[in-house]
Amino acid sequence: MTFSQPMNNKFQRFSLILLSMLLLLSGACKKAQIDSPDFQTRSPEESTVAYDDLQRAVAEDDDLSDETPAEVLSESNRNRLEMLEAYFGALPTVGLKKEYEHFKSKGLYISWGRNMPEAIEICKKTECNTVVLDIKENYGFTYQTKIPLAIEIDAATPGNPVDIKGIVDMFHAEGIRVIGRVVCFNDATLATKRPDLCLKDKNGNTLYWPSEDNRPFTSPYSPVVWDYLIQVCLEAINFGVDEIQLDYVRFPSGSSSSGEEVYIQSPEGYTAEDKPTRAEAINRFIESVRAVCTDRYGIPVGLDCFATVMVFPTDGVAIGQDWASIGLTGADSISPMVYPSHFDDEISNGIGTVIGGQTFSYPDKEPYGIVKASLNAGRTLLTQTSESYFAHIRPFLQSFTAAYKGEGRYIPYGYNEMRAQFQAVYDAGYDEWLLWSPIADYDINWFNSPDNPGTSASQLPLTTPLPKNRQTETLIAEERQAPTGIREVETQDPNEDLETNSDE
Q1: Where are the alpha helices (DSSP H) in 359-457?
Q2: 355 three-state secondary structure
Q3: Which residue in 38, 44, 261, 357 is a FRET match for 384, CA 20 to 30 A apart?
Q4: Cβ count near 500 (within 10 Å)
């Protein structure tokens, strides 16, 4: 693997000075930018931190002699380190390890920059202090990246790129933290354009996954894919994000369309049965990202996972998200997606979801119970020793109405349902959360004031509601539309006869 080396001190000092100047200028102009439709995005050349510049800074580093491989933290990796290094190689090298402090976040997912004035107002007037911004989705990038492999496979957003650095600077000027979300192995563009990097069966055929829109899945065993994703994280760090959040850091769920299993070659010198497990591959990848982003640059790394892996450990085995060990990789935080709507109900399986002996017939209708029970179940999988240095738990909560489930299986999610989920997090012993709304639509009245965060006290009056006709997409360009890179990726199973797919 080839990983970028740390920037030298001169480059870091210059970056800090430049960032300070940008923040001062941004703070002075912020009110005008938000209110004025005349604020325009910079050109792609100006808005994207040049990948070549990053590489030059790396090449100029003069303190490589003290570098050693990063520390192995995950027990699942440490116990079979020799075999894992034979397969994946050593972890990236690290010089003087950077220190950082964990930041307690209560945040809003804003997709590629939707409803930003609303998010700023909520964060300034309530307990919320963080936004989660898309860097790379499963189709590719929200901005015009300069990573060579991304350009080669046409994953760089053309035409209408999001100004990531401009967005980050704006939120920073308002004192709001920005987490950069990077979708990992569910990458339809990379999987389609580079089938050699996909999961395959024993005969070398690309596997397709009905549960993943019948698309191929890039291989979590591939160091080439790892290196690509680490480059994405580094580019996001150069935009100024405060944290990296890895999403889809897993194997596909369910069986392949052919019914064939994933085939993995054993490392040289080992028996056919001795090869990395799925959890070992995922944990080793997370450790590699942590080594570069956190140990080198002091940028914490978090990750999302299915909430069911806390409740049903066998689910974690299948997708490589072993709850008991994934938080021991040096990741700063884990965000289990404890959306009540995502649990089985009575109609889907005849029973509902059973957690700790408690049955939830229709989980979407019981947000408090399902969130608290899930988080408590996760804790029972940890030993007293491991819990003391496990990653911080920062659950993703459901901030949408799951009407797609059908009548009788869901309830509208508003003030009561959101407050119930907050309280469930606190009663389970945690004090952080992130909210997921696909359209970044949040009500300021759901939250407490900054002076009264994380309590069950009565709701304080905060601010007058934003007007119905507010222009929420005008912060960048006159009317911010989805990046033109957001598109469906056509896939064709090379193992199928083309004629069988004809509509004629």
Answers
A1: 367-380, 384-387, 415-427
A2: strand
A3: 357
A4: 7
Q: Which among 167, 70, 79 has a CA at the least distance from the CA of 117?
A: 167
Which residue shows structure tokens 């496979």? Answer: 153
H helices of 60-93, where?
75-78, 81-88
List pLDDT tens digits, range 174-194: 999 999 999 999 999 999 999
Give Cα separations from 289 to 3, 122, 329 (angstroms).
10, 31, 10
Tokens of 242: 């405060």
Instruction: Name the strand (E) or helix (H) holding 284.
Output: helix 278-290
CB atoms within 10 A of CB 202: 11
Contact yes or no for 434/394 (Cβ under 8 A): yes
Each residue of 362-416: pLDDT tens digit?
A: 999 999 999 999 999 999 988 777 888 899 999 999 999 999 999 999 999 999 9
Rg (CA), the chain: 23
Q: Are the C-beta atoms of residues 268 and 225 closer than 8 Å to each other?
A: no
DSSP 8-state assignment for residue 275: -
- Integer Cα distance of 81 and 62 in angstroms: 30
Instruction: Return d(Cα 122, Cα 463) in angstroms, integer.
Output: 9
d(CA 431, CA 102): 13
**Rounded distance, CA 326 to CA 303, Å?**
10
pLDDT tens for residues 88-136?
999 999 988 999 999 999 999 999 999 999 999 999 999 999 999 999 9
Angle at 441 between CA 241 and CA 353, to 5 degrees: 95
Q: What is the SS3 string spanning 297-346? A: CCCCEEEEEECHHHHCHHHHHHHCCCHHHHCCCCCCEEEEECCHHHCCCH
Q: Is 320 left (phi over 0), alpha (psi -120 to 50) or beta?
A: left
- Which of these ranges, 49-63, 170-184, 226-240, 400-414, has the smallest mean pLDDT? 49-63
